[in-house]
């Protein structure tokens, strides 16, 4: 009960402070509400200045608008309410260090090395460009497509954990990982290697198939071992739709650049 009253007091003080800042105008318009506040408290009314437009309805009513209706009326692109996954094409090469004790990865702003498979152009996957991933990871069939097998794999087990649980993967020997926009996919289904960037002399994690609770499967992830050293321009107003191996993919355009490369100029910024 003490905690309940304390939060009522805090909410009341916030309301009083807002009224003092707005002056006498703030008393002109009031809306009676019954909103749940923190720790079981209740907000009973909201006050608006005369110069403000009519207040929005509570969020539960706002959500009845469809995404299409919102996009049609908004003067700017509206991203999906659940967010989006920036997708990139990913392929590999055999480029490691110059000797067996070179432990530093190398940024690569063009494809370099020999493919781990007979050819890199048709042997690629579409994966997630994920700043929340601490490793570059490839799962299920992606391991074979990218050639992360045989002599390129060690027997070192790498335990992984996350919101979906835990599993063990295998570490590769140093290889090259290259990524680029879905726009690099050509009409014949191959990718243009000249548009890829990445890093070499880096070990990646290969795992068995990973299937999420919603039925989606993880193909691969380019994570912070690369992302921390480059700049990405993600154009949510430029959506790319492609079909690859019988699956449709949709993603904002992702351009990966040197951190010193100039950024484009935008009409809006945050």
Walk me through this protein's architecture.
By secondary structure, the protein is α+β, with helices and mostly antiparallel strands. The chain is 15% helix and 37% strand. It has helices at 2-22, 59-62, 67-73, 141-145, 224-227; strands at 29-36, 42-48, 87-93, 106-108, 125-129, 137-139, 153-162, 165-172, 175-180, 197-202, 205-207, 210-211, 217-218, 220-222, 230-244, 247-258. It is globular. Residues 1-28 and 52-68 have low confidence and may be disordered.
Topology:
Layout: H1 2-22, E1 29-36, E2 42-48, H2 59-62, H3 67-73, E3 87-93, E4 106-108, E5 125-129, E6 137-139, H4 141-145, E7 153-162, E8 165-172, E9 175-180, E10 197-202, E11 205-207, E12 210-211, E13 217-218, E14 220-222, H5 224-227, E15 230-244, E16 247-258
Parallel strand pairs: 5-14, 6-11
Antiparallel strand pairs: 1-2, 3-5, 3-9, 4-10, 6-14, 7-8, 8-11, 9-10, 12-13, 15-16
């Amino acid at each position: 009960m003490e905690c309940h009253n304390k939060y009522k007091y805090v909410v009341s003080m916030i309301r009083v402070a807002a009224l003092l800042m707005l002056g006498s105008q703030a008393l002109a318009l009031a809306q009676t509400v019954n909103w749940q506040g923190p720790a079981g408290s209740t907000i009973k009314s909201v006050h608006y200045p005369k110069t403000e437009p009519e207040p929005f309805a509570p969020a539960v009513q706002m959500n009845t608008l469809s995404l299409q209706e919102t996009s049609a009326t908004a003067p700017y692109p509206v991203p999906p309410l659940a967010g989006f996954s920036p997708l990139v094409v990913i392929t590999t090469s055999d480029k490691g260090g110059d000797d067996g004790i070179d432990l530093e990865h190398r940024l690569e702003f063009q494809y370099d090395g020999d493919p781990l498979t007979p050819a890199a152009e048709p042997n690629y996957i579409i994966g997630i460009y994920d700043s929340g991933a601490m490793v570059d990871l490839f799962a299920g069939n992606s391991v074979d497509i990218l050639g992360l097998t045989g002599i390129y794999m060690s027997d070192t087990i790498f335990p992984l954990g996350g919101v979906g649980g835990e599993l063990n993967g295998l570490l590769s020997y140093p290889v090259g990982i290259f990524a680029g926009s879905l726009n690099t996919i050509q009409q014949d289904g191959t990718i243009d290697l000249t548009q890829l960037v990445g890093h070499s002399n880096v070990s990646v994690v290969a795992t068995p198939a990973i299937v999420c609770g919603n039925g989606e499967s993880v193909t691969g992830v380019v994570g912070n071992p690369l992302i921390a050293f480059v700049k990405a321009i993600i154009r949510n107003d430029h959506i790319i739709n492609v079909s690859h191996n019988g699956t449709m993919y949709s993603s904002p355009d992702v351009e990966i650049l040197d951190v010193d490369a100039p950024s484009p100029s935008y009409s809006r910024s945050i």
